[in-house]
Amino acid sequence: MGLLNDTITKITARDDDARARAKARLDQLTMPHWALGRLMDLGMDLAGMTGEMPPPVKRKTIVTMAADHGVAEEGVSLYPQEVTAQMIYNFVNGGAGVNALSSITGARVVVVDMGVKADLGALDGKIVDKKIAPGSSNIAIGPAMSAEEAVRCVEAGIEVALDLAESTDVFGTGDMGIGNTTPSSAIIAAITGKDPGEITGRGTGIDDSQLERKVSVVRKILGVNKPDGGDGMDVLAKVGGFEIGGIAGLALGAASARKPVLVDGFISTAGALIAGALAPRSVDYMIAAHLSVEPGHAAMLEALGKRAFLDMDMRLGEGTGAALAMTLVDAASKVLTDIATFEEAAVSTADK
User: Fold this and answer.
1) What is the CATH number of the domain that holds 206?
2) What are the strands, taking DSSP E only, across the chain?
3) Measured between alpha carbons, how far is 103 from 324 in angstroms, rounded to an integer?
4) Does residue 351 lie in a domain region?
5) DSSP secondary structure string, 67-126?
């Protein structure tokens, strides 16, 4: 756990001085005070996260973590498990939703094999190979992974973040893994104490009877594994997934390098919950990109103390919500740098 512990110790508080300098400029812009609302909040937060004013945001990277899940055997998804590998080829070929939305801001998409149940050797050099194992174990009958594997997948995510940090200003998280809304639901229930019936959703679009079965599977998962909700690594090992651990590690590594992280939807926020449990200060570097239609996502964001920027009934994953929210990061940066102050524009201020 050397890399994990070292990374956690390097995560510092946001820079209050840079944040104050951003606020001082925003207070003087040629508009009614704070008239652009949360965009101005975001600009101030970006300054605090990066420690720079104006904050650097030009170089953007979406990291899509991929892995398979043994719990897919329980019939919790509409799609067969081989879709995970097929979609990785789609990402590499530029044909997925995350590719289309990332192109809006020029963000690159980096795909990481954390545990796909397929030989992806043909993609050597086109994806990052951090495979822990060919899929996690079926969490309906036992733990997802060993304690050692849990540490390995988080540290793999940290390694990815640190490798990309020199060429990245802003990170976005993404996921791919058939069946991964089920472990994500179990993670929320374990950490927040919410009832599985409240926080388990339809994932790929299952019908009412399939949803009822999925809820029962999540209850079984919790009963079989008994994860300790106060121990993020125990939760990950018992009911998580390799890509979820990778996302947690990415968030930790990015925070240690003072890089903002746009957290995508349901699965990404499960990873964010794990990261927050391991290093509470890492949450200060997270930006909630959007609110998923998955019912448990709101509970996740509440546990993290976050409010989503977008609410568009999205539930795709991949990093699509993070990619779309990167337009707001650009907008917040433009507010900070391109709008004149009253003094600069020689505009009279409001009467006091």
Assistant:
1) 3.40.50.10210
2) 60-67, 108-115, 128-129, 170-176, 261-263, 286-288
3) 10
4) no
5) E-BGGGGGS--SS-TTHHHHHHHHHHTT-SHHHHHHHHHT-EEEEEEEE-SS--GGGBTT
Q: What is the CA radius of gyration of the chain?
A: 20
In a domain, 352, yes or no: no
Q: What is the pLDDT of residues 38-93, one digit of tens each?
A: 999 999 999 999 999 999 999 999 999 999 999 999 989 888 999 999 999 999 99
In this structure, are 39 and 185 located in the same domain? Answer: no
Report CA torsion sign: 76, 82, 86, 88: positive
On whether both 134 and 261 belong to a single domain, the answer is yes
Q: For the segment 171-213, what is each residue's pLDDT rounded down to a tens digit?
A: 999 999 999 999 999 999 999 999 999 999 998 888 889 889 9
Task: Say whether 318 is catalytic.
Answer: yes
Residue 350 included in any domain: no
For residue 166, the SS3 value is coil
Q: Considering 82, 302, 318, 343, which one is annotated as catalytic?
A: 318
Query: Which neighbouring-strand residues pair with 290?
Result: 310
- Does the model's pTM come out above 0.90? yes
Residue 123: count of CB within 10 angstroms of its CB: 17
| 293: number of Cβ within 10 Å | 15
Residues 173 and 313 in one domain: yes
* Distance, CA of 193 to CA of 312 (rounded, Å): 27
The domain in which residue 23 lies consists of: 2-54+336-345
Check whether residue 176 and residue 148 sit in a common domain.
yes
Number of domains in the chain: 2
Q: Which of 295, 297, 296, 285 is nearest to 321 (CA)?
A: 297
- 131 lies in some domain: yes
The SS3 call for residue 128 is strand
Half-sphere exposure of 126 (CA within 13 A, CB side): 12
Q: Do 315 and 169 fall within a single domain?
A: yes
Q: What is the largest CA-CA distance in the chain?
A: 69
